[in-house]
Amino acid sequence: MAKPKHSKTLALNKEPFRLWYEFLKRAKAKGMKVSKDYIEWGDTSMVFNKWWQVHGANLVPIVATGVALASDETMHDDNYYLFAIPKNLSPRQTRVEAEHLMKKLKAEHGEIKLNARWRLTEGGKTKYESIRAYLHAIDCKDKLIKQAVAAGKSADDVKVVDVLAALRLYYIKKHERYKGKGDWMPQRLTHGDGGHETDPKKIIVSDHSHPKVATDSINAVREYLKKGEALMQTVAAGRFPS
User: Fold this and answer.
1) Per-residue exposure over 38-61, b if at least 16 CB sit within 10 Å of its own CB, e if not
2) Which of 29, 72, 103, 120 would be 242's cystine partner, CB 3.0–4.6 Å?
3) Residue 62 gets which letter from DSSP?
4) How many CA atoms lie within 13 A of 167 on its CB side?
């Protein structure tokens, strides 16, 4: 199979786009009105990695992390200029000549046009661990509501303390499954002892008697759900923070 001329996934951090995709799926599941521009995203019912291969890699801007030595991937990639730099050249002379050559090449071949529609919203450094916590909180609450309805109850019967217990259990099981790799349980969901060094196995999932739970953990879950809802609305409008 011939190598594609544009490897748009090269040097790209896919995590923000994975989270964008996951929040879009949940916004749709909740019946939110989403931007008509999302028609470009195609089928969003598939898992992210499959969707990325089919649609995502062709939608997002080409993003490289900076200047680096040429590799097998960049050798035939139209998104890169490959320079031959004599080793005896000084850094200053290299910079000057590279800038001159870049201007000449861009004048001859034009700028690479990026798909600006799906660029990340400009802003400060995003804490993706926090955004993942919002997503997990939403999923835990939705699962509890589904169980309540199946048992003849209503969404109102699902309390914040129930979501807290489910969220704690989620992190504990994830910690066991991946042997401690990935996100740790946020400190605000514990009893306030130890943060990321806290052993998840020592957390009592359904113990809400500790005063820290009322002041920190329950309020944290409320905040996660509120911020997660706001983020879903932002995503539904066609944006995601960088």
Assistant:
1) beebeebeeebeebbeebbbebbe
2) 120
3) P
4) 31
Q: Which residue is it, tokens 């992390």?
A: 65
Task: Tally the domains of the chain.
Answer: 2
Q: Which domain-ending residue is among 71, 89, 119? A: 119
Amino acid 226 reads K
Task: Assess whether 114 and 200 both reside in one domain.
Answer: no
Residue 241: phi and psi, rounded to 5, are: -70, 150
Q: What pTM, to 2 d.p., does this model score?
A: 0.71
Between the CA of residue 75 and those of 5, 64, 86, 87, 95, what are the distances in Å? 10, 14, 18, 20, 21
Contacts of 197 (CB under 8 A, 6+ apart): none
Q: How many angstroms from the chain centroid is the CA of residue 91?
A: 37
Both 92 and 65 in one domain: the answer is: yes
pLDDT in tens, the chain (242 residues): 344 444 444 435 788 899 999 999 999 999 999 999 999 999 999 999 999 889 988 887 655 556 778 877 677 766 677 888 899 989 999 999 989 988 888 888 776 555 567 877 655 556 889 999 999 999 999 999 999 999 999 999 999 989 998 998 899 888 888 887 878 888 888 754 444 444 544 555 555 556 555 668 889 999 999 999 999 999 999 998 76
Classify 241 as helix, strand or coil. strand
205 plus 111 within the same structural domain: no
Give CA–CA dist 171/199, Å, rounded: 11
